[in-house]
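Components:
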Amino acid sequence: MSIKAVGVVKRFGQFVALDGVDLAVESGRLTALLGPSGGGKSTLLRIIGGLEEPDAGTVHIDGVEATGVPAQRRNVGFVFQHYAAFKHLSVYRNVAFGLEIRKRPKQEIRRRVGELLELVHLEQFADRLPSQLSGGQRQRMALARALAVEPKVLLLDEPFGALDAKVRKELRDWLRRLHDEVHVTTVFVTHDQEEALEVSDELVVINHGRIEQVGSPEDLYDHPANEFVMGFLGPVTRLGDQLVRPHDIEVLANHVDGAIAAQVTRLQRVGFEVRAEMSAGSDEPWVQLTRGQADALGLDPGSSVWLRAAPHAASLTLQGCEGADLGEDGLRGAGPTEPGGAGAGPGEGRRGGVGAGTAP
Amino acid sequence: MASRVGRRSRNGLRVVAVLYVTALVLVPLGVITWRTVRQGGHAFWSAISSAQAVEAFRLTAIVAGSAVVINIVFGVGVALLLTRYHFPGKRVLSVLIDVPISVSPIVVGLALVLVYGPNNGWFGLPLHNAGVDIIYAVPGMILATTFVALPLVVREVVPVLEDEGFEQEQAARVLGAGAIQRFRRITLPTIKWALAYGVVLSIARSIGEFGAVKVVSGNISGSGQTQTATLLVDERVEQLEPGAYQVSLVLIAVAVIAIIVVSVIRPKENVS
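Structure:
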């Protein structure tokens, strides 16, 4: 069951949450809406679900216009960040809620709820109240509740945002497996790029009420359309006139073509990785190495090395000096750089240039 | 050391609290109970079963019952309005809800007479000409009682609705529940205990209301009377007639029993 949103605009007072968004979600896929807080991704999800009305634009679900249809008649499943468990009802009654509203026969409800509780591994908790469950269990119950009515689409709003790191990891593996089993068209909102990269079939990066890029996780990681997408999906640092990922920089003992001279200013060990901060002219790139690599090179603060982007590296050539916020401090002391040689495609003007891309 | 100091100050506070409640609540109520008991069962029964007393209790029940029902409907409605919607004037409405607590009931009664009085009230004169009497009649007493008990339901229900947020109702909506189903299946169970407590406070406040009712009722005893139980107590005290303690004790008992019942059946605050 596909979802299509066209020209969706939503304002809250002066604040423009969505500024003309077009989105197409294919049937049966698991799509992540990724972006920073306040970027508009949750608003878009709530508009698809009917919990907010767009100021302009249309939403089609399964080819049928849903735009003025109230939420209770859209037949979508919605999972909230804070579970929205019905606190006064048992786990069983929570899951049965949508079916009871639809006045399904008792036996059918019992069978369906039983199946779903099994699916989310809560069969032995049927008689508990939500307050007697852990956060992860509550969210699985909420998911079963949403699936009970056989929704056309399943919408999840930061579903794992309120859980601690370990449970979050477990649940997203589980969600991925569940989706492979159930195949309901699913859209989930997250601000966690790791979660989005790991779980989704397709990624939609949203910022300032606009869609920055749409594509497969690999595609977006390797071919980011702009600095924002590149910075949001992972760490970024600046090498010469290029933005690259710190793990895509080769550290060399000797000069080769295209390499830039640099000096190690600081080494920091974080678990299995070593972060080497460098000084290269006016730039201060940093490089992510494994411990073995750092040891083999004999890196110490003060060492002189040569740096170049790895041949397969995803990179963006900078066209302007405006600094987009990259999430990492890769652009410290950014000076103006001339338009890059390899820059393919048109820049959007307001952002940095478009990527030279990669050659695996 | 620290724990000893802590214990000492805790015991000190306990003594202060007990003395405070004793002096203000227990002693006066105890004296009324004692006076009633001392006068014996026969005096008690004859005081509360006289035709005048029975009529007064009946009227109190009608007035308080009507006021409580009105305040449940509007209290829940206003609480939903205040917590679920944004609209201009919301803060003003919220402040106005509290006015009945801060305005003296006598003033409330007087204000109602000015508006609804049959002789020169704004609405009262046309209503009187149309054959509807509000002041010096039961409708005015219900109006006055409703007014003084107005904030009690709202103020109990609003915090619960704010705490629970909107998400359960939204979840129910996405699952297909219409407005009435959402209210009955989600909102009402959520506010159940707050509402029960608000109702008990409203009952206690309504049966005990005196000042506003006195001004609007005219305190007429006899047929077509407008004398509630509190007005009867006042009359008995003023005229040094017996029966005041006994009727008072009944009023106290009803309020205390209502509060005890709710605090017994109300579930302990469970950890969420």
